[in-house]
Amino acid sequence: MEKKNKKNFLDIFKSSIFAPISSMDENVCALKETKSAFIFAGLVSIGIMLANLIATIFNTVFARKYDFWTQKYKWDISLSNLDGLNYVDLIFKSLLQYALMVLCIAGVLYLIVLVLKKETTYVKALGTISVSIIPNIVLALVASILGIIWSPLKVVVLAAAVTYTILILTFALKNLIKENNVDKLVFYSVIVMAILKLLDYIIFTSDLFNII
Predict the structure, then answer these.
(1) N or C: which end of the chain has fewer CB within 10 A?
(2) Does residue 205 carry a pLDDT above 80?
(3) Half-sphere exposure of residue 95, counting CA atoms within 13 Å on the CB side?
(4) What is the pTM of this model?
């Protein structure tokens, strides 16, 4: 057990990407301390912000435009388009929004566990959510970049990301609430994923951050 607790953040990130299900229990255990859980959640929020920033830069610099003269699509690459980006919003404002989203969805997961009359802590729920959404971050970035090449690819990868995240959440909840009923676990995972998307919409369309 002591060995698990000494697992560093980089190891948790790597295992959450390449072996998210088999490493879930070990990673959550490594984040059982309040300080570690909140620091890691902050790092995950930074990761989401960076993925969004990279995707935005790619989509701003590289674009496929239809040429009516040749009736073909052609690449339009322009670094000057980067001058029009609002980096304050892309970095600082979005970081606060992503951090709030991670904290809120952890709170929702914690409430769901309490409603089910299971024992857990907010810190454990935060650690569980933080490691569960890492693959989704990576796939969302890949989807954005592939979407530049061919837009249907973005849709396919995003759909795969949602499905994969639900699968990961299913196993995460199994460890969190000690439930073996697969139907219930999938149902709870879909609820968590739906609330995650809803929070994403509410937070990013709210006027709360317009003062920044």
Answers:
(1) N
(2) no
(3) 10
(4) 0.83
